[in-house]
């Protein structure tokens, strides 16, 4: 299967600061990337879908001005949590899909965000 | 009613037993069916991917899809302690819908 990396794996920040999480597709061209959020012992909740070179499509209830997504290349997407608050603390996971894996999604290892 | 229903367990089996997991779904438009394994504090890992009714086998893993009943299953033969994880079913038409995940523990 394909390899997707995320950086950082863990981040702790103060309330009010912004945090950027990177998602990289290492061995294939990711035309579509997805960002998920996962709470403890819960399933994954899709936040947004981004296609390379286009604006992201956000799921209902997800604030696009708070969770900024950029997908500027076929190998990199970023999620920026702006003005983070303690309730934004969560496990954020990205996934990638693209040639030749057009109907499959491969997930990154996740980023644990803790906002103090 | 959720689109995808999966019993969260937990499920505990002795080493060597067969693990049986299943999900039901309500949206007949789903075309692709997947099983992911997720270890604690890690991202999901794709185990099985299928798009048609029937069985698909890969080593100790067998995935079954019954579109007429809207039911999918994953069987793990000769289970090992290293199989202890949360197993998530997922299905898609354009984006993935996940089940809640079943936590499995294989006892040595």
The overall average pLDDT of chain B, rounded, is 93
Proportion of residues in extended strands of chain A: over 45%
Taken from the alpha-carbon principal axes, the silhouette of chain B is globular
Count of DSSP-assigned helices of chain B: 0
Please summarize the sheet with the most strands of chain B: 6 strands, mixed
Structural class of chain A: mainly beta
Q: In total, how many beta strands of chain B?
A: 11
Along the chain, the helix and strand elements of chain B come as EEEEEEEEEEE
First-to-last CA distance of chain B? 37 Å
For the report, how would you describe the main beta sheet of chain A?
A: 7 strands, mixed
Shape of chain A: globular
Radius of gyration of chain A: 13 Å
Extract low-pLDDT stretches of chain A. Answer: none
Q: What is the CA-atom radius of gyration of chain B, in angstroms? A: 13 Å
Beta-strand content bin of chain B: over 45%
Order of helices and strands of chain A: EEEEEEEEEEE
Average of pLDDT of chain A? 92
User: How many DSSP E strands of chain A?
Assistant: 11
The percent range for helix content of chain A is under 10%
Question: How would you describe this structure to a colleague?
Answer:
The complex is a heterodimer of chains A (116) and B (108). Chain A has 116 residues and is mainly beta. In chain A, 0% of the residues lie in helices and 57% in strands. Chain A contains no helices and eleven strands. Chain B is mostly beta strands. Helices cover 0% and strands 56% of the residues of chain B. The interface between A and B is medium-sized, with 22 and 21 residues.
